[in-house]
């Protein structure tokens, strides 16, 4: 921590005990702890601000690159040009062709009843 070894910390503690005295040492250590906490808070705030500035600069650079690439693509492929539709391919790479138009279906004739009359729609057998 800050290049302070255990033996150096012990020497500082003994000197503080001698000069401050055992009676006032807890109060002084409390104040020192508060100051260290404030300094750490300021340092966190400062590093967070620096990181935000760097992040915003990276976002601006990415946006600029995106704008340049978008302009290049739009100039290469104008919106008013007519492009042919590419043939559809399957996953195997086989080109799919269009299916032929289905033949029109003829309407079903109602089966005739034994007496020759057609059955009502509700009584028709299913095909």
| Sheet/helix structural class | mainly alpha
Rg calculated over all Cα atoms: 43 Å
Helix share, percent: 40-55%
Tell me the major beta sheet. none
Percent in strands:
under 5%
Low-confidence segments: none
Descriptors for this entry?
127 residues; mainly alpha; 2 helices; 53% helix
Please explain how this structure is put together.
The relative contact order is 0.03. This protein is mainly α and 127 residues long. The protein contains two helices and no strands. The chain has helices at 6-20, 25-76. The radius of gyration is 43 Å and the shape is elongated.
List the helices and strands and how they pair.
Blueprint (H helix, E strand, L loop, with lengths): L5 H15 L4 H52 L51
What's this entry about, in short?
With 127 residues, the chain is mostly helical. 53% of the residues lie in helices and 0% in strands. It is built from two helices and no strands.
